[in-house]
Amino acid sequence: MPGGYFCLSRDNNDPVFNVHLGDVWGKINFRTLRDSFAIDEKSEDARLLTVVEKGLKYVKEIRPGDSIPRELLDGSASWRVDEHHLMVARGRLTLQLVSWITGREEMITDRYKLEQLIEDPNIKQRAQEAFAKLAKQFGLPEERKQEMVDKVDHLARELSYIEALRERYAEVQKIMVRLGQAKRVFRSDQQLSSEVSRMIALAKAPVSTFDDIFDQIDGQTSEVMAMLRSFDAQITFIRGMRDELHTMLMVWDEMIEMWHGHEIDRDPETEGRLKRTYQFLAKNFLISKVWQRNG
User: Fold this and answer.
1) pLDDT digit string, tens, across residues 254-282
2) Is the model's pLDDT at 290 over the cut of 60?
3) How does the average pLDDT of the chain come out, rounded?
4) Residue 248: which H helix or E strand, with range?
């Protein structure tokens, strides 16, 4: 059907097939699709619908002819990160290595401090010493330290997605700051001030969940030696957290775009954004949802 595509319904997040019917779009849920076309549960069509349903966790739309999201094929991400995300992840691991050989291993999370340190020539020299020591720890001669460099680089590539998501989450945090500002700006408007307070309360649980997941990731990846000793398990863990965060942040895309570049002013435009924010929060977080983490 020309223009047809799959997505999640805005009403209940169920997967639907969208078809163009003149001036309107019709949405057909998967149960109706299976019944209407007599799709056998063991057929290839049924298998593809299952793949589409799983794939919509990672992308917003799937159209006939699209590739299957890579998360379902090999566990890698179907979306891209910027070079600076990889730089931050690699720099963070490098500094962990340098602190490890000094016996004071720590994890630096301040991005500005991180960028300053990784350009330090002394840090670069100590990093090479660290890779040689790592090779020795794993029973490899120093001339094979490149194998350790490659493993750390692999970890950095996986963690670069976490850095991209951390940056995206900062936009959610900015929304929370704006809600706090709105409460002060509209404090004389009893109804709107009360609604903003309710918004802040509704957002508390999902924001806390984000914070908990990032804390868990940072705790799990704070020791380079531990990551290298359980390399495959660490990759699985990072990818699982990546997919969970990506899924959760996709829900916020509309709000992030709506608030981007807009500050709180006492005007009708701000009031309109606040009302849409209230609708978004009430729809998605009025009843606490249990996020299914990847196994």
Assistant:
1) 999 999 999 999 999 999 999 999 999 99
2) no
3) 88
4) helix 231-250
Q: pLDDT (tens digit, 9 = 90+) per residue, 43-98?
A: 999 998 999 999 998 888 998 888 888 898 889 998 999 998 998 898 888 888 88
The answer to whether the CB of 85 falls within 8 A of the CB of 167 is yes
Residue ranges per structural domain of the chain: 5-73, 83-146, 168-285
Q: Helix (H, G, I), strand (E, B), or coil: what is residue 16?
A: strand
Query: What whole-number distance in Å separates Cα of residue 11 and Cα of residue 284?
Result: 10
* Tokens read off for 256: 């992030």
For residues 120 and 105, what is the distance between their CA atoms, to the nearest angstrom?
18
Alpha-carbon radius of gyration of the chain? 23
Instruction: Output the CA–CA distances (angstroms, integers) from residue 30 to 69, 211, 260, in the order listed.
Output: 19, 35, 35
What is d(CA 263, CA 63) in angstroms, rounded to the nearest whole number?
Answer: 36
Asked if 215 and 135 touch (Cβ cutoff 8 Å), the reply is no
Work out whether strand 5-8 and strand 61-62 pair parallel, antiparallel, or are unpaired: antiparallel
C-beta of residue 189 within 8 angstroms of C-beta of residue 273 = no
**Is residue 103 scored above 70 in pLDDT?**
no
Q: In what order do the strands lie in the sheet with 5-8?
A: 24-29, 15-21, 5-8, 61-62
Question: What CA–CA distance (Å, rounded) separates 64 from 1?
Answer: 9
The span from the CA of 49 to the CA of 44, in Å, is: 9
Would you mind telling me the total number of residues written for the chain in this entry? 295
